[in-house]
Amino acid sequence: MLETIATVLLVINILIILFAILSEPTNKKGYGAMRPDRPATLAYDVNDFCAYYSHLVLRPFEEGGARFIFNCQLDEDSEPIDMIMLAKSGVYVFEHVQATGWITGMENNEKWTERIQMGYGRKPQEEKFPNPVRIAEDNVHTVRKFLALDDVLVRSVIVFPDFCLLNNIKVFNPNTRIVTLNQLLPAMVTLNNKTGINITQRDINLIYDRLAEYEVYPDDETNE
Description:
- By secondary structure, the protein is an alpha/beta fold.
- The chain has helices at 2-23, 49-58, 132-147, 181-195, 201-212, 218-223, and strands spanning 67-72, 81-87, 90-96, 101-106, 111-116, 125-130, 154-160, 164-170, 176-180.
- The strands form 2 sheets. It has a 5-stranded mixed sheet with strand order 1-2-3-7-9, sandwiched between helices. The chain has a 4-stranded mixed sheet with strand order 6-5-4-8.
- Strand 1 (67-72) and strand 2 form a beta hairpin.
């Protein structure tokens, strides 16, 4: 039964991806044409499944003044941060995980496990991947250190594709949320409403201007 549900979700998501890509006007590249205040190329492309669709899902927050930073490298020794959302309820640091199948893991494990069912009577295929909570916590620490604003809340959000089933996930940090893409919007709305206003729109714009200088664009990476 679970295998059938996972297969159906996978097919639905593939159709959504194809529809979104084909419905984009040909003169648009990434998000540049969606946001006139941004350059023609944003710091990632449509092929980055999770970052692309996380932003689409959370775009209603922009109506309330939220702003987004992508592929932000604040520490030269670390990988760029996938996405940061600046909202009046605080700063949200996103870590997108490219995985599939049944996902298990605990907050302090070095590795998490993805388990893919191979069919009736066959042994599931298991793969290990780095603990996303540790990566997210490191990114949150980096953002907090960079901002140096003790009164601003900084949280982490770990996003898995919809075709993942989060099974036996144990994370006790109240400032960390782990969701699949279809759970993202309701989870963020709940968290946003629960927190209320933590920073002003002026502060959001100031923080955005500071972080935007550290966005790494695809052309920059190619030229390095």
